């Protein structure tokens, strides 16, 4: 979030990005967390962004995400691409039509995990940030009722793991910021991907040219970055 608090920028890192992981060599970015933990993941992401400082890390597991969805009584997303998902564990078929849809119960998690929803990777990925935008909307709707908010915020905090000096008072202080943001104020970005390839028999996303994004994050100029960075769809393999 920039100093003027006019926008919220959500920068996504695809889990198959092939990157340098401090102390571990090259690998998929999700290996930074699975093999090195939170600190290694923070170092990896910071390195991709040219040393940008990361103050807090908020983590949630599958059960926590479902609990958050239920605590919010579901949330709405602007779904850009229709898709149908068959849940392997139950055989249940879930349809996600194009347009504004409501996600409740376990459907929120199913939607988030459905990687085939987007036809290609792009430099801006609003669908990737749609669930978080929907959750922020639901929190904003309840911000005017102190009793509801007092019940909701502890539930939210209980279902995430926070690394960094962020306590309950800080969490409450963020609510007015969320309440003032409209959907169009939230901008979803994805770290630029230049193509797709294979490493060790695994499919990976190839990354190059993150310096401009890192500079924009560090110098509070993401508005200019968004205005001058064109969408693109990487093709080919390497």
Quick gist of this model?
The protein has 238 residues and is α+β, with helices and mostly antiparallel strands. It is built from 8 helices and 12 strands.
SSE layout and pairings?
Elements: E1 8-12, E2 17-21, E3 25-28, H1 29-48, E4 57-59, H2 62-71, E5 75-79, E6 83-86, E7 93-96, E8 99-103, H3 107-113, H4 126-142, H5 146-158, E9 161-163, H6 168-180, E10 186-190, E11 193-199, E12 202-207, H7 211-219, H8 222-228
Parallel strand pairs: 1-10, 2-12
Antiparallel strand pairs: 2-3, 4-9, 5-8, 6-7, 11-12
Notes on the protein architecture:
Mean pLDDT is 83; it is low at 117-127 and 231-238. The protein is 40% helix and 24% strand. A hairpin with a 2-residue loop joins strand 11 (193-199) and strand 12. The strands form five sheets. A four-stranded mixed beta sheet has the order 3-2-12-11. It has a two-stranded parallel ribbon with strand order 1-10. Strands 4-9 form a two-stranded antiparallel ribbon. Helix 2 (62-71) runs antiparallel to helix 5 (146-158), helix 4 (126-142) crosses helix 6 (168-180) and helix 7 (211-219) packs antiparallel against helix 8 (222-228). The protein has 238 residues and is of the alpha+beta class. It folds into two domains: 12-48 and 191-238, no CATH class; 58-190, LCP protein (Aminopeptidase, 3-Layer(aba) Sandwich), CATH 3.40.630.190.
CATH homologous superfamily name of the largest domain?
Answer: LCP protein
List low-confidence stretches.
117-127, 231-238
As laid out across the biggest beta sheet, the strand order is 3-2-12-11
The level 1 CATH classification of the largest domain is Alpha Beta
Report the span from N to C terminus. Answer: 35 Å
Q: Please tally the β strands and state the result.
A: 12
Average pLDDT, rounded to a whole number, is 83
Radius of gyration: 18 Å
CATH architecture of the largest domain: 3-Layer(aba) Sandwich
What profile does the largest beta sheet have?
4 strands, mixed
Question: SS-based structural class?
Answer: alpha+beta
Order of SSEs: EEEHEHEEEEHHHEHEEEHH
* Number of structurally distinct domains: 2
The shape is: globular
Q: Percent of residues in beta strands?
A: 15-25%
């Amino acid at each position: 979030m920039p100093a003027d608090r006019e926008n919220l920028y959500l920068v996504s890192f695809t889990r198959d990005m092939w990157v340098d992981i401090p102390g571990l060599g090259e690998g998929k970015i999700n290996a930074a967390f699975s093999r090195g933990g939170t600190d290694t993941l923070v170092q990896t992401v910071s390195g991709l962004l040219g040393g940008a400082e990361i103050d807090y890390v908020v983590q949630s597991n599958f059960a926590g995400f479902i609990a958050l969805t239920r605590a919010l009584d579901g949330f709405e997303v602007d779904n850009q691409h229709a898709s149908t998902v068959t849940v392997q564990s139950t055989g249940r078929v879930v349809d996600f039509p194009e347009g504004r849809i409501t996600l409740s119960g376990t459907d929120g998690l199913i939607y988030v995990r459905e990687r085939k929803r987007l036809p290609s990777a792009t430099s801006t990925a609003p669908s990737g940030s749609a669930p978080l935008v929907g959750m922020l909307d639901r929190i904003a709707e309840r911000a005017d009722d102190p009793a509801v908010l007092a019940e909701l915020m502890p539930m939210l905090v209980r279902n995430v793991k926070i690394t960094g000096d962020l306590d309950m008072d800080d969490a409450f202080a963020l609510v007015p910021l969320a309440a003032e943001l409209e959907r169009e104020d939230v901008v979803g970005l994805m770290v630029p991907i230049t193509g797709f390839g294979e490493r060790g028999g695994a499919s990976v996303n190839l990354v190059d040219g993150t310096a401009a994004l890192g500079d924009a994050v560090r110098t509070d100029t993401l508005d200019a970055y968004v205005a001058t960075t064109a969408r693109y769809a990487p093709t080919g393999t390497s």
